[in-house]
Design goal:
single chain; 408 residues; alpha/beta; Urease, subunit C, domain 1; TIM Barrel; eight-stranded parallel β-sheet; seven-stranded mixed β-sheet; 15 helices
Length: 408
Amino acid sequence: MKADTLITGISQLVTASGNGPKRGKEMRELKIIQRAAIAIVSGVIVWTGKESEWKGEAEIVVDAGHRAVVPGLVDPHTHAVWAGDRLADFEARTSGLSYEEILAAGGGIRSTIRATAAASQDELVALGKPRIDSLIASGATTIEVKSGYGFTPAAELAMLETIQVISQISPARIVPTLLIHVPPVSAANRPSYISEVCEELIPEVARRKLATAIDVFVEKEAWQIAEAEQFLEHAKRHHLAIKLHSDQFHSIGGVELGVRFGALSADHLEASGPDQIAELAASSTIATILPGVSIHLGIPAAPGRKLIDAGAAVAVGTDLNPGSSPLFSTSEALALSVRLNGLTAQEALVAGTINAACALGLKDIGRLEASCSADFLVLHGSDWRELVYTLGRNAVRDVWIGGKRVQE
């Protein structure tokens, strides 16, 4: 066998094995190869194993310098494109107002919608690209990016077009999602807005392939179950996958709705209880938890430990956004999931790689095995656990995407 590139000098190669999400106890099962090597052809892994067992040739040999290697991280939930800031919201919240009170008063998401609508595409690209770069530097090789700050169909399409532009200039794999975020302020305008989204926006997004999935924010201050159901029905009709913002502040049936519609993932889950945990554990829907929200808003953490113990497949994301999770590091999200959500180090790595890939409906990423994309991280240290142990310093030395090292 002849490889384009051979990575040697790997102290530990650490990965989940086999296709599909890992559930419950499976999330602690990692394949660890000591003194390993990776052979790559045309951006795809063709062989992994002990370095001493490699019998082929390689055009280029790269020595990792006795450092640990793990799969490239997958961030399954971000809102990385926005304009303006939410510093006034942050000050109000630290003075005692709740997130929902700020939203009801016209702040929160609505203030970001106004600022984003006023920005040009060039401005949004200039703002969004450095955020994506920060996630890549922290280890993210695949990144989901949602719209949702456009509100009107035209503005939502413009947001998705901006995400498309960023994807063309970023080394990372960008996965776009159409987010139906918040309803009109006036209840009288909700029916016409729902009709506009269902009859115009969703079909146009599907026709132009601007997103692979739809996401709906189901919450007391956002969309109700009957309304969200209309969006999801139209998404399925147009062959878009389904994701849900669910149970962030209140459990009002979002998890159950997502499971019923076969959603790829139900995200947030801070307010999920035993019934929702059982629903997710018995379903194919990935439970995506977002610890950055808990630490920034000071709300209870999602029940990651209980979800895994019940047999659910758990993923972790940053939820990078200006209001509830200004977290610019995907590896830091994994580290926080250990501290806040009760995951073990092994579970956190699985949650941020193969399970996060499954939360986006993606195969052949999130693990280091033959036929997978050569997306991997070389850490600074020789022990892979530094990735989730380290706080405040980047544990990632080199990021490789599709067999190429990302140059900073």
